[in-house]
């Protein structure tokens, strides 16, 4: 399907918005490939993780739990909990993509990663005049800039295996990625309350087995954020 000139322009804008994230996507993917190989997974399974899940944080979590010998139910539940944010991302995109054909929305759902959602949400907020198809073009521009690199870097890491020295410290990519995504979004008190709660509870509960403290912290943080927003709305209505 050919794109109109505004759609092509939006797609290119998406590519540009996604490009800076390559600085962390590439080492992140390499790191996952290396770690997965060291865990003992064959190349096909490493790439299956990457292609079918497309969720680095959940993939690392599952790998760590596999290494720890956690029960399968715990691994699945924890990985799903880590990826609960994707459900919120999808809900956030519904007002923008709701009128698109089902096949387009299905592809967008697969390509909805932290970076494609964050960049798109910011773009839509700054440019509310964009049409639905321009918004989709921008989203796909961001995603197609990043997802193929995620595949390729994971493959490179898996092939390199233990040949990458520890001194490269590629594990910096994971925390930096989420700091870069989350920090600009902390613009309201509910957001800050949820983030602070998640940090504090994660530290307090770090001793729980199989990293289940993260599950508890994540759920509690969402409750804190929702309750803070509810109280602020009630106070604003009463004033």
From TrEMBL:
It is a multi-pass membrane protein. Belongs to the AzlC family. The chain crosses the membrane at residues 20-39, 46-66, 72-94, 136-161, 168-186, 192-224. Keywords: Cell membrane, Membrane, Transmembrane, Transmembrane helix, Transport. This is AzlC family ABC transporter permease. PANTHER family: INNER MEMBRANE PROTEIN YGAZ (PTHR34979:SF1). It comes from the Bacteria. It holds the Pfam family AzlC. It is found in: Cell membrane.
